[in-house]
Design brief:
Strand order of the largest sheet: 3-2-1-4-5
Number of helices: 6
Structural class: alpha/beta
Largest sheet: 5 strands, parallel
Order of helices and strands: EHEHEHEHEHH
Helix content: 40-55%
Oligomer: single chain
Shape: globular
Bound molecules: 4'-phosphopantetheine
Distance between the termini: 50 Å
């Protein structure tokens, strides 16, 4: 049984994330998407909301599940017996930090990191840019799955008009 984790903040999940998750799901028997619980970082969605959006967007794969974690990713990997992390690389600018994390995770626990080159269709895409564009009324319908679009527009509307 080959298992891998796709970790991230997913605030919210984008088509870029889903592209990597879907390709990982073809290479591994089981893929677990792990949402980081980071109480120090301000997020637009709660972890439960992010898990729900990811669950809906990955349901059709059959071998993808969604979980959350706090603390070190390698501790979660050890607890769940997952030997590999799959990450997407969008550009050279991602590489320095990702390389550092991959080497640290390997030195801490022997966990391997596999990098996948992002589909060029999504190489410009990030959750933060999606939020920024949507905040100012830009169309992001092609950049996030259906499960994230309505919650995103609703949450931004609530923030604009808290009543
Ligand atoms: O979507 P993001 O925010 O770019 O994902 C980053 C994430 C969650 C993969 C990374 O920050 C992480 O693994 N955090 C967990 C804490 C940890 O293990 N830190 C040591 C990394 S070497």
């Amino acid at each position: 049984m080959r298992r891998a984790v796709c970790p991230g903040s997913f605030d919210p999940v984008t088509q870029g994330h889903l592209d990597i998750i879907g390709r990982a799901a073809r290479l591994y028997d089981e893929v677990i998407v792990a949402v980081l619980i980071n109480k120090t970082k301000q997020s637009l969605f709660t972890v439960a909301e992010r898990i729900e959006m990811l669950g809906e967007a990955t349901a059709h794969y059959g071998n993808v599940t969604v979980d959350s974690f706090h603390g070190l990713l390698v501790d979660w990997c050890r607890e769940h017996d997952v030997p590999a992390i799959v990450k997407g690389l969008r550009a050279v600018s991602d590489f320095d930090y990702e390389l550092q994390m991959a080497q640290m995770n390997h030195s801490l626990a022997g966990v391997e990191t596999l990098f996948m080159t992002t589909n060029p269709l999504y190489s410009f895409l990030s959750s933060s840019l999606v939020k920024e564009v949507a905040t100012y009324g830009g169309d992001v319908a092609h950049l996030v799955p259906e499960s994230a679009l309505a919650p995103l527009l609703r949450r931004l509307e609530e923030r604009r008009d808290p009543s």
